[in-house]
Amino acid sequence: MLWSKLTGRLEQAQALDPAVDAVAGVVTAVVPRGPVKDALHGRWLGHPVHPLLVTMPIGLWSGASLLDYLGGPGAREAAQRLVGAGILSVPATAAAGLADWSELGLDRQPKRVGLAHAAFNVASTLLYSASWLARARGDHRRGRRLALLGATTVSLGGYLGGHLSYSEAVGVNRNYGVDKAPLDWTDAAAATDLSEGQLLRADVGGEPILLAHTEGELYALHAVCSHYEGPLDEGELREGCVVCPWHGSTFRLRDGSVARGPATAPQPGYDVRTVEDRIQVRART
Question: In sequence order, what are the beta bridge partners of 236?
Fold first, then answer.
């Protein structure tokens, strides 16, 4: 398909990399990792918050266009208010999207697509802002035309946003649907292979399991980070948590919950015990 070919070229457009690095650097400087960025990621929600917020400007602007072409002259004021409300909803929506985009690390393809997605959305906001100004000056015909152009760029940006989510799996839980460990206690590793303060990756029933030994306790989590499939066994232990080496997502060892983003989905956890000189795991009961 034409659209797929064009998006494929965009993914390979290395000329965008300087702009990608510059924008990512600004976002990271303005919103470093911490509580604010976690809120923008949607850690409190359990999944990314950007897809939820993006419905606001799209819905408000779509409503304005319906009033423009179906509401008649009496709907002009309401259409203008919808356009203005959509503009006001953009900053939070954009902040959440940029926060997620800035944590894609070294994966260039989605970062290039994401930059183009953001550019279309900036163009949309500018067009709708111009539409609002034209309406405020009484030029409703010009306001309608500018809004129609804005709807076009919103659609293009939306297509790229859908590509990021559905083709490149940005923002999805990478552990969704993983098989649990066996219901019965199953051998995972020798106890001597895991010393205090260490992490170990084991294969149990075809599943990669992270074993951790810290402060005299054993823990077991799925070994693949839910954010972007980072190898948690190559991370580090920190205050009862494991920190992903790729993007810094931090999970509590006791239950796999997210202590720090960019991850929003928890890690599957498993029961673990030592029998004689062997470490065993099973599905958590």
Answer: 243
> What is the pLDDT of the chain when averaged over all its residues?
93
**Radius of gyration of the chain from its Cα atoms, rounded to whole angstroms:** 24
Contact in structure between 111 and 119 (CB atoms under 8 Å):
no
Segment 9-18 mean pLDDT: 94
For the chain, the DSSP string reads: -HHHHHHHHHHT-GGGHHHHHHHHHHHHHHS-TTHHHHHHHTTTTTS-SHHHHTHHHHHHHHHHHHHHHHS-GGGHHHHHHHHHHHHHTHHHHHHHHHHHHTT-TT-HHHHHHHHHHHHHHHHHHHHHHHHHHHHHTT-HHHHHHHHHHHHHHHHHHHHHHHHHHHTS-TTS-TTTTPPPPPSS-EEEEEGGG--TTEEEEEEETTEEEEEEEETTEEEEEESB-TTT--BGGGSEEETTEEE-TTT--EEETTT--EEESS--SPPPEEEEEEETTEEEEEE--
Supply the pTM of this predicted model: 0.87
